[in-house]
């Protein structure tokens, strides 16, 4: 009987240990097991030693252990440690070891890295490439939506929302180059697809920089009157009010610069009007969003 009780107690302790290990992994959001990748995540999240974690992520990649996650996580940690240039090199060198499903996620990390390094041309080209993928039906691995994560929460993102987000990033990159005419076109298309207050304020800045003050003021009114998404956000509202004050002296005088005849041609942006007017449920791999953009030609050439 004593031996039987010892066996029961042993099983109970083993079960408790397994449960504790499971709870530990859940609390710290660690994958189960003791592989190189798991040790890297433990070092990153529990021991909070990013430099050591980077070394272990390298080992995981070389060992072929969860390469998709290891490369992405390593690049993110390297960026946090101000090793953005090395992170770019790592992704470019090892992304061919990753699955097709991981490529979009790696592109998103690369865009952030290019932004941190001030590599505007590379950032712009990659954003255009992502627009091409939408055109070709390759975004989201051919699906109409994808599951995204933010602060531990999952949510669904549509192709329409993703297109507007990419255009917003592209517009911002053009603004950093002081190419306000190109940024204006991109922001206008983004607003027609999925308008929000932040992009409206950026569009206003593009118009202000081109001395088109009355148009800029009109854009701000939609934010201040709560007509578009995000208008109730305190930061967006404050920014819109500040921009309006900056515009008031010019608007009161009726001063404005003539609207330029923009000539923008870009295979990546063709047909955004089609997306606005005909966006329909996902029907095929080729999405009907790039047909013709007029009267804009030349500045956005790929």
TrEMBL record:
- Name the principal localization, coarsely classed: nucleus
Q: Which Gene3D superfamilies does this chain map to? A: Tetratricopeptide repeat domain
TPR repeat copies, ranges? 164-197
Query: What UniProt keywords apply to this chain's record, in alphabetical order?
Result: Coiled coil, Nucleus, Repeat, TPR repeat
Check the record and name the Pfam families matching this protein. Answer: TPR_1
Under the heading PROSITE patterns, the entry gives:
TPR (PS50005)
Q: Give the family from UniProt.
A: Belongs to the MS5 protein family.
- Would the keyword Cytoplasm turn up in this protein's UniProt record? no
Annotated compartments:
Nucleus
GO cellular component annotations of the record = nucleus
This protein is called Protein SULFUR DEFICIENCY-INDUCED 1-like
Supply the source organism for this entry. Anisodus acutangulus
